[in-house]
Design a protein that fits this description.
- The chain has helices at about 20-25, 75-80, 100-105, 110-125, 130-135, 140-150, and strands spanning about 35-40, 45-50, 65-70, 70-75.
- The chain is built from 6 helices and 4 strands.
- The chain starts with 19 loop residues before the first helix and ends with a helix.
- Helix 4 (about 110-125) crosses helix 6 and helix 5 (about 130-135) crosses helix 6.
- Bound molecules: zinc ion (ZN).
- Zinc ion binds next to strand 4 and helix 2.
- One of its GO terms (molecular function) is DNA binding.
- Pfam families: MazE_antitoxin (PF04014).
Amino acid sequence: MKRTGMTRPLDTLGRIVIPMEIRNSMGIEIGEPLEFYMDVEQGFMGIGKYSSGVSCNLCKSFLDLTYFKGLLLCKQCILDLKGNVGVRPIPAPIVKEPMHKEKKVKRRSSQELIESLKRLMREHPTAKQNEYAEWLGVSQGRISQLKKLL
Ligand SMILES: [Zn+2]
């Protein structure tokens, strides 16, 4: 912290003008919230940028803030969103087509499948995963999912 040599009078409403030179070197914009710090014992106070909670959730701007679905957003970000500026959708995950065989099989509940799998595992303890899958008419992936539920 250094002494700037700049002084400003406090007006009758308790206001003070922060010199433009200071605003510029601190990167403080008009309308930006500032926070006061004080040390009563030392008779010293300071002003700093206040940044938590009152800035745009997307770009951290302090200007033209509005609540949108419970989030603070600035006017520019809202305009950008409206115009799809910088919007890049995440590609939808590729859903594997179910095998032809599965389409005919009536979808059974996991519980039914687990019971059938338990029975098969008792009857054929040495069978491989793909054999269980074939007997139950489900994919091998489904069998390993079901095994985790056992
Ligand atoms: Zn913004």
